[in-house]
Amino acid sequence: MKHLLLTLFISVISSYLLAQSPDLPNDFLGKAWHKERRANLRASMPANSVAVFFANAVRNRSNDVDYVYHQDPNFFYLTGYREPEAVLLIFKNKQTAANGTSYDEIIFVQERNAMAEMWTGRRLGAEGVKNLLGLDQAFNGSQFKKYNVDFSKFTEVLFYDFYNDVRDNPRDSADLYSLIDQFKQKVNYPKQDNSLIVAKEQPKNNLNTRGLNQLMANLRGIKTQEEIELIRKAVMISCVGQVEVMKAIEPGMSEREIQGIHEFVFKKYQAEDVGYPSIVGGGHNGCILHYIDNYKPSLDNKELILMDLGAEFHGYTADITRTIPVNGKFSPEQKLIYELVLNAQEASMKACKPGVDMAFLTTVSREVVNKGLVELGIIKTETEKHLYFPHGVSHHIGLDVHDKGNRMLEPNMAITIEPGIYIPNNSATDPKWWGIAVRIEDDYLVNKEGCELLSGYAPRTVADIEAMMKQSSPLQKFKLPDINPKK
After folding, report:
1. Is the Cα torsion angle 371, 305, 418, 279 positive or negative in sign?
2. Alpha helices in 250-398 (DSSP H)
3. DSSP alpha helices (H): ranges in 101-223?
4. Please, are residues 223 and 299 in contact by the beta-carbon 8 Å criterion?
């Protein structure tokens, strides 16, 4: 009787879940777009090769709570599939199945499970992948173990090597850990190091863990019009966040409160996530390049705040930094450093055009910064080694905040230009400069003539920032009860 009731219950739940229409936006990239990406990869693959991609692992946050799942960008780019526990194979040439049908791609995904879906959400399953994502050869992950393609017949088996950081769920023989283990057995993966990464040379077999990255960089670095529209949305959302903070910020606010305003704006526009951990550094905290604590409880009236945040919209992320005075007015020293950084960015923007190596953009900015630091008396010569400008100024953006792509600029590449000057406390210079940290980061689309500034909605000049900060914000009237106990 118990078994009958359980079966009936699962049947009812399964029917309920299947009947629900997913409450999802309807402007994701379509299955035809992802299919074309797979075709483009196939066309660029070596003769008689197969490319193998695994979904991202589920990452544990603590105990029985996992982080919100984020798909591997390559896997999403090629399929649109946003669930874990999956493996995709793309073949250069047609393969023949046991039933005589031919295919050149095949995917194995997590199986429908009514009880699991009650807890963690709907799954597409093999049939959903066929119908919604357009991958005709789609099977449940449990079938990968008996999938008997002979990998030794391929001249190259292309895949990203493993870092052995995937948890094993002993109750699931088709989880990612099992799929990777089964793949290793099928391709005779070396066991001595359990990793090809540490090897100085590729093993003398058909396993290639290096070639796939360049193939994907060639594809992902040049954005399609559909991708550009999503990047534009992510950038605009991020710019609005910067503008709203400029209007709302007041001395005494916390770094975390400023972070919250940005990310509230992101969510208001239905951005799924942040593209990277938000950086909100007041005063000397801005000198920490990847400062993500954002814990300072009260911003000082006289300091700058550096805000490096980007919304992720439908997988595509912006990357924008603004540095503003907490009190709404740059001090003379802050203004000098800020305008030096802005001049460096403007010079690199003018140099940005097809045929230019991205590294040259850093060279241009560095020359402007070093000359300016000499004029301000912060360094002695333009060739002096220093850490006031310790990073490059440009990288690709897209499905990753540091997206795949080649160094030589081409039309339809989406990139950043982000010079910065950081003068920590106790630096070997006049104390009037201490604690000043300025980074200005904008997103650009390379075109035939040069580049288009995508993030101009967020003010960049001293005058425009100060003017924006004079505007009022409804958030200034948003007050919460005091939760500290009275003494």
Report:
1. positive
2. 255-268, 332-351, 358-375
3. 114-120, 125-128, 176-187, 211-220
4. no
> Which amino acid is present at 414?
A
CATH of domain 22-219: 3.40.350.10
- Between CA 365 and CA 348 the distance in angstroms is 6
Asked whether 45 and 92 are in contact (CB, 8 A), the reply is yes
Cβ(70)–Cβ(162) under 8 Å? no
On the question of pLDDT at 485 being above 90, the answer is no
Give residue 407's region: left, alpha or beta (phi > 0; psi -120 to 50): alpha
Sheet bearing 316-317, strands edge to edge: 273-274, 311-313, 316-317
CA 81, 85, 90: angle at the middle one, nearest 5?
A: 60
State the number of CA atoms in the 13 A half-sphere of 89 facing the CB. 26
222-477 to CATH, choices 3.40.50.150, 2.30.30.100, 3.90.230.10, 2.60.120.1440 = 3.90.230.10
Binned at pLDDT 50, 70 and 90, residue 7 comes out as very low
Q: What is the pLDDT of residues 174-209, one digit of tens each?
A: 999 999 999 999 999 997 554 544 444 555 689 999
Asked whether 364 and 348 are in contact (CB, 8 A), the reply is yes
CA torsion angle 32 37 39 45 (round to 10): -170
CA dihedral sign of residues 74, 79, 85, 89: negative
User: Cα-Cα-Cα-Cα dihedral of 376, 380, 384, 385, to 10°?
Assistant: -70
Per the DSSP assignment, residues forming a β-bridge with 443 are 416
Give the span between the Cα atoms of 125 and 113, in whole angstroms.
9
Give 337-361 pLDDT, tens digit per residue: 999 999 999 999 999 999 999 999 9
By CB atoms closer than 10 A (0-12, 13-18, 19+), residue 13 is middle
pLDDT (tens digit per residue) in 369-421: 999 999 999 999 999 999 999 999 999 999 999 999 999 999 999 999 999 99
- The span from the CA of 137 to the CA of 106, in Å, is 5
Q: Cβ distance 323 to 306 under 8 Å?
A: yes
Residues 6+ apart with CB under 8 A from 449: 353
Query: Could you give the strand order of the β-sheet that contains 207-208, starting from the edge strand earlier in sequence?
Result: 138-140, 102-109, 87-96, 49-54, 156-159, 207-208
Burial 112-149 (b: 16+ CB within 10 A, else e): bbbeebeeeebbbbbebbbeebbbebbbbbeebbeeee
Domain positions in the chain are: 22-219, 222-477
